[in-house]
Amino acid sequence: MEGLLDNLVGKNALVKEIHKGGRKRRLAWAYSTPFGTVHWENGEEAEEEYLQAILLCYASVDGCCASGKAALLAQGLHKEELAAYMEELFDKWMEAGAEVKKRWTLYAVSIHGGPKMVKKLQEWIWEWPQQGRGALAAEAVQALALSPQPQALVIVDGISRRFPYRQVKKAAGKALDLAAGKLGVCREELEDRIVPDFGFDRKGERYFTYGERQFKALFTPSLGLEVYDRTGKRLKNMPVPGERDDAAQAQAAYEAFRQMKKQIKAIVKIQKMRLELALSCGRKWNVGAWKRLFTENPVMRQFAIGLVWGIYDEKGLAQGFRYMEDGSLHTQEEEEYSLPEDGKVGLVHPMELSAEQLEAWKRQLEGYEARQPIEQLGRKVYTVTGKEADAPQLERFGGYIVNDLVLGGKLQEFGWRKGPVKENGCYNSYYRTDEEAGVGVKLFFSGSCVGGENEDVTVHYAKFYPADRIKDGFILCREEKETPVSADRAADFGALLLKEVPGRYFSEIALQLAKATASSRERDEGWKDGI
Question: Kind and range of the H or E element at 214?
Answer without folding.
Answer: strand 214-219
